[in-house]
Design goal:
The structure is a homodimer. Chain A is mostly helical. Chain A has 2 domains: 46 residues, Orthogonal Bundle (Arc Repressor Mutant, subunit A), CATH 1.10.10.60; 132 residues, Tetracycline Repressor, domain 2 (Orthogonal Bundle), CATH 1.10.357. Helix content of chain A is 66%, strand content 0%. The N and C termini of chain A lie far apart (68 Å). The interface between A and B is large, with 41 and 41 residues.
Chain lengths: 199, 199
Amino acid sequence: MSTGTAGRRVRGQGRESLLEVAVGEFITRGYDATSMEDLSRAAGITKSSFYHHFASKEALLRAALERALSGLFALLDEPGATAGPALARLRHIVRGQVAVLQGDLPYVTLLLRVRGNTATERWALEQRRAFDGQIAALVREAVEAGEIRAGVEPALAARLLSGLVNSVVEWYRPGRPGAGSLPDDVARAAFEGILPAAG
Amino acid sequence: MSTGTAGRRVRGQGRESLLEVAVGEFITRGYDATSMEDLSRAAGITKSSFYHHFASKEALLRAALERALSGLFALLDEPGATAGPALARLRHIVRGQVAVLQGDLPYVTLLLRVRGNTATERWALEQRRAFDGQIAALVREAVEAGEIRAGVEPALAARLLSGLVNSVVEWYRPGRPGAGSLPDDVARAAFEGILPAAG
């Protein structure tokens, strides 16, 4: 049970499931306050088994943040995000962002909590800024093309859009009723109002 | 300079400015990771001077969170929030929330980061839930009165509304251009859409 190569996969822990455990601990305890000791204990394996899969705590963080970021950036290359009017492309991306958030909730939660104390965190912040920059450029494009009602300030709209979408991590839990329509619901709220007046 | 009662107010630090320093440290370091030692150093006074004003770190947190919460709850008693159609009352409250956030940015930021590890944090979370509950009730009232376009689900709308408003703490910094119109801009985004289609 604990000899030879089996010792590296106690309780069948592969790289993927260790990452999942680590992300859970980072979210609960905070990244800075979590030690490799804490992570090994949570995963039920020895520290050296843990190091076999990930060279350091920061390597775990990097892998987790990469997962969240790759899901988000992949959206920008989808046909719905690259062709057609800017407003329709934005709607496609917003729906996709919510779906990524739903599918990779802990990873996206971690990404949104990053504050920039380590090189990896600063890298992730830069990536987030790059993503938000692409959205902001698309918002400007929609405003300049006259697709958006007059008076909307592009930089503010881009920030509020990002804030609305990202706020979903604060309360969304998988399996709740309404999860399937959430991407469309959030998009409708962003483009038509959270509380649009009747008539 | 350091004798008698003057010793209690080195550098003229009163209760209010110590609270401000503490909130800044809590936000930067995280509440759990901040010691009274850190706070005294940041304020430039001795630990015992600090204890003269606040009995404990948790007392500081409580005072800071009370300030944020009292500003928010006061909104609910304003005439604009208590009389008239539910949708207009909601709009009044949303504008007010943004104004409180602008005026007491560090305090509201701290409130929104609270996770519930201590009795004070759990108390603050309960207060936040009570506040959100009042907003949610008002949203339901507006939906039931037919003031809102059909198809809007009250619980989801209340969550998105709170998420939109609270997301402003992530990027708002006092003194930037556009600060004066921000309450109206956020309200317009919430009720008419962040990116409403033209025409």
